[in-house]
Automatic annotation (TrEMBL), chain B:
<feature type="transmembrane region" description="Helical">
    <location>
        <begin position="173"/>
        <end position="193"/>
    </location>
</feature>
<dbReference type="InterPro" id="IPR035906">
    <property type="entry name" value="MetI-like_sf"/>
</dbReference>
<comment type="similarity">
    <text>Belongs to the binding-protein-dependent transport system permease family. CysTW subfamily.</text>
</comment>
<keyword id="KW-1133">Transmembrane helix</keyword>
<feature type="transmembrane region" description="Helical">
    <location>
        <begin position="230"/>
        <end position="249"/>
    </location>
</feature>
<keyword id="KW-0812">Transmembrane</keyword>
<feature type="transmembrane region" description="Helical">
    <location>
        <begin position="62"/>
        <end position="84"/>
    </location>
</feature>
<keyword id="KW-0472">Membrane</keyword>
<dbReference type="InterPro" id="IPR051789">
    <property type="entry name" value="Bact_Polyamine_Transport"/>
</dbReference>
<dbReference type="GO" id="GO:0005886">
    <property type="term" value="C:plasma membrane"/>
</dbReference>
<dbReference type="Pfam" id="PF00528">
    <property type="entry name" value="BPD_transp_1"/>
</dbReference>
<protein>
    <submittedName>
        <fullName>ABC transporter permease</fullName>
    </submittedName>
</protein>
<dbReference type="GO" id="GO:0055085">
    <property type="term" value="P:transmembrane transport"/>
</dbReference>
<keyword id="KW-0813">Transport</keyword>
<feature type="transmembrane region" description="Helical">
    <location>
        <begin position="96"/>
        <end position="119"/>
    </location>
</feature>
<feature type="domain" description="ABC transmembrane type-1">
    <location>
        <begin position="58"/>
        <end position="246"/>
    </location>
</feature>
<keyword id="KW-1003">Cell membrane</keyword>
Length: 306, 259
């Protein structure tokens, strides 16, 4: 570092280069840099979300009729007036908790194994292999499970090769099938966030705990788990939110039993053409997810407070 | 403990890759019912060459992904320059606004786009998909380019200016060449986000104008043939190739650079 690194030194030099004008323009230049990206986001994300909020209070689709708009909050009461939606929401939440829980139970040990049982090029390769799947098409990966899980599918063939005469283990079109597919889809997120959290744990910390007489489970519970917690939390958020909104996975792997919030919302937009109800259900779902996070974050903050 | 760790890794990698391997193998298997034994054939790939719908959908996918990569990289890079090099009020709010496109379930973003685009007359089709994909890709570009900028020393540009370069000249001849790997990585990321995007495309597809993932979904729901495996294999290959180039450019998973 040969350049002067005091704040004054840094700030002073550009004004030597161009004495006047650079002070007045930065605000305009900054705005010009930011405007294209944020204008795009405004048109493609924020205005659409606003339009959907507006739609959720409409009584019916406004298209193709000259009748004046009628506003109602009734779509937000859908859970009261259509009790089956409560069951659907519970199915979605169960999917979310099972998938997130299993991903955590597999992802943390995997991250620890990468950080502790490999080194050098092997570690690099294993790490890349573990996160590569989330670059590949999610739909294609869900599709591959149908071939494995269906009755008389590959898994059945393999089981019968080892244990002939056993009944079919075909899982396709069941709740566990959806969970298996979703875990496969989202596990790389958990491995990544947990790895980032545990990769920095100092060996000396674990050695110290062991030399003070702690057994491995104790080391895990008192040293590793607290340090891995941020990774587990961010991984869980990254997984729980999209799982609650998933519709393609339950449709393909769940068949007729795969009715979730996601598929009900999709139906409102593609089959029933009840866009106001679909919009209200979307925002209700978003509200449920945010409420769960608010609950968990206050619990976590209470736990983590010194 | 080391062996336990390696056993866990082997099992997890088996779980992650076995289904994908089966999917690829079935694309080369003669049986149209995905039945064993394995009889190798290229029949499904040659069948694919005559499937106009899948070819048109693939062409659309690549077109949308290319435009998304170029536009998102340009817009995202400009925003990243402001967000990581300039100080102004409201910066943390602007950073926060990058989260919804990533964090809100695509189902909600996608249906919201459908409502708004239909309502305003923007309509559905490839242009609508490009509007949506670019918005989804911008936050990732800002992240990748921002990380690249953070590893460059700001005083290099200032040194060039103190030697008489204009601000733009200093940016073009000093920062831009050093930033090039990050820009390429960001463009690849945006390309991959678009190529693999299904949910948003699904809601914005117009009748007869679809992308490959949407076409695959429709085929799966109608009852499928190994042709879908063949085209999925090609799509997988493209994603893996993109990932390897991206990993090489950003050195993710590698040892941290020493300073």
């Amino acid at each position: 570092m040969s350049a002067p690194s005091t704040p004054e030194g840094r700030r002073a030099r550009p004004s030597i280069a161009s004495p006047e004008g650079r002070r007045a323009r930065p605000a305009i230049a900054t705005a010009a840099l930011l405007l294209p990206a944020y204008a795009w986001l405004l048109v493609a994300v924020f205005l659409p979300l606003g339009a959907m909020l507006f739609f959720s209070f409409l009584k019916t689709n406004p298209f193709g009729s000259k009748a004046p708009l009628v506003f109602t909050g009734a779509h937000y009461l859908a859970f009261v007036t259509r009790p089956y939606l409560v069951d659907v929401a519970i199915t979605s939440l169960r999917l979310g908790f099972w998938t997130t829980g299993i991903c955590a139970a597999i992802g943390l040990p995997t991250a620890l194994a990468i950080a502790r049982a490999t080194r050098g090029r092997v570690r690099q390769t294993v790490f890349l292999l573990a996160i590569l799947p989330f670059w590949t098409n999610g739909l294609v990966r869900i599709f591959s499970w149908t071939m494995l899980l269906r009755q008389g599918g590959i898994l059945d063939d393999l089981v019968h090769l080892v244990l002939p005469g056993v009944g079919s283990v075909g899982l396709l079109y069941s709740f566990p099938a959806i969970v298996v597919g979703l875990v496969h889809a989202y596990l790389p997120y958990m491995i990544l966030t947990c790895y980032l959290a545990v990769a920095g744990i100092d060996d000396a910390l674990i050695d110290a705990a062991r030399s003070l007489g702690a057994r491995l489970p104790t080391v895990f519970a008192t040293v590793i788990l607290p340090l891995a917690l941020p990774g587990l939390v961010s991984g869980s958020i990254l997984i729980f939110v999209p799982v609650i909104g998933s519709f393609m996975e339950p449709r393909i792997l769940g068949g007729r039993i795969g009715v979730t919030m996601g598929t009900v919302i999709e139906d409102q937009f593609t089959q029933a053409y009840n866009w106001p109800l679909g919009s209200a259900l979307s925002f209700t779902m978003l509200g449920i997810v945010l409420a769960i996070f608010a609950l968990f974050s206050s619990v976590l903050r209470g736990r983590l407070a010194p | 403990m080391i062996w336990l760790g390696r056993a866990i890794l082997a099992l997890v990698l088996l779980f992650l890759y076995a289904p994908i391997a089966v999917m690829v193998l079935m694309g080369f298997n003669a049986s149209d019912l995905y039945a064993l034994p394995f009889v190798p054939t290229l029949h499904w790939f040659s069948e694919l060459a005559g499937n106009d719908r899948l070819i048109a959908a693939s062409r659309n996918s690549v077109l949308v992904a290319l435009v998304t990569a170029v536009v998102a990289t340009a817009l995202g890079t400009l925003a990243a320059l402001a967000l990581s090099r300039r100080s102004f009020r409201g910066k943390s709010l602007l950073r926060l606004l990058l989260l919804p496109p990533i964090a809100i379930p695509w189902l909600i973003t996608g249906t919201a786009m459908l409502v708004f685009f239909y309502w305003t007359g923007i309509g559905r089709g490839l242009h609508a998909m490009i509007l949506g994909h670019v918005a989804l890709a911008i936050p990732y570009v800002v992240l990748v380019v921002g990380t690249g900028l953070a590893s460059l020393r700001a005083d290099l540009e200032e040194a060039a200016m103190s030697l008489g370069a204009t601000p733009f000249g200093a940016f073009r001849s000093v920062t831009l060449p050093l930033l090039a790997p990050s820009l390429v990585a960001a463009a690849l990321f945006a390309f991959a986000v678009s190529l693999d995007q299904f949910v948003v495309s699904y809601f914005l597809a117009a009748p007869g104008v679809t992308t490959l993932p949407v076409e695959i979904y429709t085929s799966i729901r109608k009852g499928f043939t190994p042709e879908i495996n063949a085209v999925s294999t090609i799509l997988l290959g493209a994603s893996v190739a993109l990932f390897l180039v991206f990993a090489g450019l950003t050195r993710i998973g590698g040892e941290r650079e020493r300073r």
